Amino acid sequence: MPTFADLRQQVCEANHDLHRHGLVHAHSGNASGIDREAGVVLIKPSGVDIQTLRPEALVATALDGRRLAAREVPDGIASPLRPSVDLRHHLELYAADPSLGGIVHTHSIHATAWALVERPIPCAMTSMADEFGGDIPCAPYVDNADDHIARAIMAHRTRAPAILLGRHGVFAFDRTPALALKAALLTEVAAHTVMLAMGLGTPARFSDAEIEKWWQRYHAGYGQQPPA
Amino acid sequence: MPTFADLRQQVCEANHDLHRHGLVHAHSGNASGIDREAGVVLIKPSGVDIQTLRPEALVATALDGRRLAAREVPDGIASPLRPSVDLRHHLELYAADPSLGGIVHTHSIHATAWALVERPIPCAMTSMADEFGGDIPCAPYVDNADDHIARAIMAHRTRAPAILLGRHGVFAFDRTPALALKAALLTEVAAHTVMLAMGLGTPARFSDAEIEKWWQRYHAGYGQQPPA
Amino acid sequence: MPTFADLRQQVCEANHDLHRHGLVHAHSGNASGIDREAGVVLIKPSGVDIQTLRPEALVATALDGRRLAAREVPDGIASPLRPSVDLRHHLELYAADPSLGGIVHTHSIHATAWALVERPIPCAMTSMADEFGGDIPCAPYVDNADDHIARAIMAHRTRAPAILLGRHGVFAFDRTPALALKAALLTEVAAHTVMLAMGLGTPARFSDAEIEKWWQRYHAGYGQQPPA
Amino acid sequence: MPTFADLRQQVCEANHDLHRHGLVHAHSGNASGIDREAGVVLIKPSGVDIQTLRPEALVATALDGRRLAAREVPDGIASPLRPSVDLRHHLELYAADPSLGGIVHTHSIHATAWALVERPIPCAMTSMADEFGGDIPCAPYVDNADDHIARAIMAHRTRAPAILLGRHGVFAFDRTPALALKAALLTEVAAHTVMLAMGLGTPARFSDAEIEKWWQRYHAGYGQQPPA
Q: What is the SS3 assignment for D168?
C-alpha cells in the first residue's frame, strides 16, 4: 500500500514521463493520482513547464474540486498554484470508476491523428491484445463544457485503459499513475505502428478469441507481482 | 514588468529551445525580443551554433536596424557579432505591430512541408482552436528582398500567433519570446498531427462558433496569471 | 574469449541499448545471452524498467529453463526476479542453433508495421545487402503457446540475423548480444527507409548476385577483427 | 589557417555529430578531413562506436591510401586501427577535387529513401536554394568495387555540396569537415521536408533565376566570416 508521499512522487514522475516520452509539447498534457482513503486528488498545475515540475507544486483537491488547505492534505503540503483546466474531467472519471488510481491526458501526435478522424485503433498486433484487450476506442467529439468530456469517456470506454477523444486527444487511466502513463505511451505506439502498417497493406484485426489468449496470459503472468 | 536582463535571458532561452525542440537544424532558425521602452531589439547572431549561444552574444539593434554601442544598450553589452540575415524581417514586424514582444523564425520540417505546397493548416483539433483560434494561415511565396517577407506576413496573418511563408518556413510572434517559441512549437505539432490524420481519413475543420468556445476558454482561464 | 562477467555486462548493455535506440517502449522488449560452456542463459527480468536495469538483476537459467541457484552461476549471482515471459522462445532458439550467442526481441515501430501485414522487407539498399545478405524474412503469425514462436522462427529464418514475426514484432540473433542488438537496430532502419522509398517510387530489390558482392565484402573486410 | 591538431578535432567532432544528429545508426557512416599541405587524410576507423570515438583513434593515411607512421603525421599520432572500408572513396574524391577539405558519408533515412528510387531531391524550398543552389542530384547505382563510387559521384555532382548514391546513401563534401557535416544534415532535412510536402500536394521546383537570388545572398552575406 503506497503512502501519500509515494503517490505525490508517482504523480510527479508520471508528469515528467509525459515529457520524457514525447507525449506532450509545451504544456499540453497532464497526469493526476488519487488517494481514495484520504479522498485527495493530486494534479499538475495549469500552464507550467512539465519537465521541471516539482512534487510540492502538485495541486491537491477533494473529489468535488474544492482546493484543500495544507492541514487537509496528508503530507501537509498545499500548492499555491491553480490546477490544470482539465481537473474537472479527472475528478468525474475518479468519481465514476472507483477502481481508477491515476489518469493521464495527452495530445500525443499519432494517437491524436486517429482522434481527428474519429476512428478507433484496430487491435492488429499482439502488444495491443496484451495491453488493451481489443481496439482502442474513440469517443465522438464533445466540447469541454460541464461534464461533457467525462461523460463521453464513460459512455464509450471498454476494458482498455485508454480512449481517444474525437478531434481532441487521449485519456488513459488505470490503477496507478504509472500504469496510466504506460497506457498513454502504448496508445501512441499502437497509433503509430498500425498507421504505418496501413501504408504497406491491410493489417488484419485479431478475432476476439485470439485477443483473449494474449490478454489472459499478459494479465496472469507478466511482471514481478501477482495480478491485482 | 521584466527587466532588460530578463529579456536577454529569455531571447537566449528561446533560441536554445528552438534547438531543444528540434525546430531548427544546423543554423536555420532564430529568435528575437524587443524592449519597447528602450527601443532595443535583441537577436541571434548569424550562423552560430544555437545550442551553445550565450546571452551576451545576442546582437542589439535599434528598430531601424542600426547596431547599438554598449552605452546605448540598457545592460551595457554590445556583441561584436553580425546579426541574423533575417534581422530586417523581425524589425519590420516589430514596427508594424506594437503588441509584439518576441519573434521566432523556423524551417521546422512538418510546418515547412505545408508551406511548400502553400496550404494553410486547417483548424481540425481542439488544441489548434485553443492556441491559434482558427487555421494557421500561409502567405504566398515572396523572395527575401527589401520588405517582401514582412509585408507578406502582415497582409496574410490572422489572430493566430504564427503564419507559414510559402515555399519557405514559419514565423511565430507573440507578447514575449517564450510565447512566440511556444507558438512555433505548436505550429509544428499541428502540422504533423493534421498531416497524419489526412492519411487516415478527412479531418473536419471546426465551425467558427466551435473554435470560439475553445479560444475563449483558453484565453480566459489557462495558466497561472490573469490574461493580459 | 569473453568471461561470464563480460557476458553479463554485454547482456545488460544490449538491454540498455534497446531503450537508447528507441527500439522498446515501456517494457516491451528484451535481450539475452548464453555462455555455452557453462550452459547458462542470462535474460532480462519481466516488466522492469529497461533503462535502469543493473547487471545483477539479469535472471540466470539453464537451457531447459530451470532457474539456477547462485552456486550454479559462474559469477555466483542469482537474481530473485522472474525472467521475461519470452524466456522460452529464447531458450528454444539457443537449443536449435548452437551458433547463437545473443538474442534480442523488440516491437520496434517500423519493423512491426511490416510484420502487421506479414511482408518481408525487400533487400533494396546496399546496407541491407551488407548486414542481412538478402530480404528480412517474415514468419507467419503464430500465438505464443508452447514452442510456436521458436518453431516459426526456425522454419522461416534465412542467413539474415533477424526475422519479423507476423502481427507481432522482431527477433534478432547473432554470435553475441551486441551483434544481435545491432541486427535489431538495422532491421528498424531498413524497415523505415524502404517504407519511405515506397512512398516515392518503386525501390528495386537487388539481384542475388549483386547482394552477394556486398555481403562477401562486408563479412570479409569490415571492422577491427578478422572474420569469425 | 587551422593547425593539424584543429583538423583532428574537427574530424572527430564531425563523426560525433553524425551520431548526435541521427544521421548514422550502429557504425554505418563516417567523416574524414584532409590537410592538403601535409598530404594527410584523417578518417574514422572501421566498425567502431562513433559516439565514443576519440581524436587519437582517427586513422592517418596518405592520398594514395598508404598508412602513415607516427613520424609522418604532423602531430605524431598513429592509430593502430584499420580505416573505414570507405577510405578509398574519400581518397579519390580528395584527389579529384582539390577544393575539398572534408567528406561525410551517411545512410541517413530520408535521404536514402530518395536514393533507393534513384530520384534527385527537387529544389522546392528556400533553404535548399541557400545551401544547395539547386536540386540535390542522385548518381545511378554502382557497386563498391575499384573506383566506381568516386567516379559516379564526380560524374553526377553539381555545385551542391552533397549527392545521393543510387540504392546506397549520401556523400557530402565541402571546404571543411564541419561544412560537409552541415551539408549531410541539410540533405536529410530537405529529403524529409520535400517528401512530406509531396503527401500534401505538388511542391513546385524553383526556377533557376529564383534559386540564384537565394544562393547569391546566402553565399555573400551569411555567417560571421567574409565568404571564402
A: coil
